[in-house]
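Hi everyone,

Forwarding the result from last night's run.
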Amino acid sequence: MNPNPSNGAFPPPKRFSGAVVLGREPETPVWLALDEERGQQVQLRLWPAGTESAQVLKRLTSLSSPFLPPPLDQLATLDGVWVSHAHHASCVSLETWLTREHYLPFLEAVRLLSEIASVMEAAEIEGLRHGSLQPAVVLWRNSHTLLMDLGLCQAKGIEVTAAHDLVAFGVLAHRVLTGQIPEENQANAPSRLREHLPPGLSRAVVRCLCINRTATPVTWHELSILLSNLVTPAQGYTIQHLRDQADWLRRQGQEKQASVLEQEAEKRANERLQSEQARITGSPERHN
């Protein structure tokens, strides 16, 4: 099949009608098309032909994660292997969100980073790397994350190290937590730009950014445990975390969830005030 003269990319097979390019890498774009056999909209990507690509796809298929898009079909052609995924119309790239919102509230940021770290930890066991970990390859909507393009760089024969992915994760984490991209080769602690961040999280981001300059590099397993522990205990969230999340949820139209968090924040604020008043004035028992 001849490449499309407008962008040099091979168009999908005839089984996929009405194909249009969604974006990302021009030489291997993501296509949106109607799968005539399945009768549904799908996203398509042409993976390179060759043994290495086939091995990467096999390892990728063996991964079971709710944060990876499950492949619907793999269609081998002379040009390579077309891999199709269900089209998630309700999801947009994290890049789109950050361009508009600048950063995510703490609870959403930690949840998203925890899900990415869990995928990368499982991928490491299978010998898979990402190579282009950035907001543009993260689909996200209403607290659900999908990491796209895992293993694609390896399928193209590009060497990717664990350190490369960890540094990229540090850059992504810094941006979702603060709204700013850290300066290259600088130990930019996100806590300097945004208050109320747990010190352990801020240090972990710095360790990712400086992984090539530390004697004790951070691991995906370590990050996964740290982030999952931050996601789970609601009591560990500060009043400001809860208020930020409630405000963000309200702007997304999720009024019920926002009200629950606001009530919890108000409850804790009242408890803190009462505790502070008791400390200053003394309890009734002390006066009797």
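The first strand starts at residue 16 and ends at 23.

Cheers,
N.
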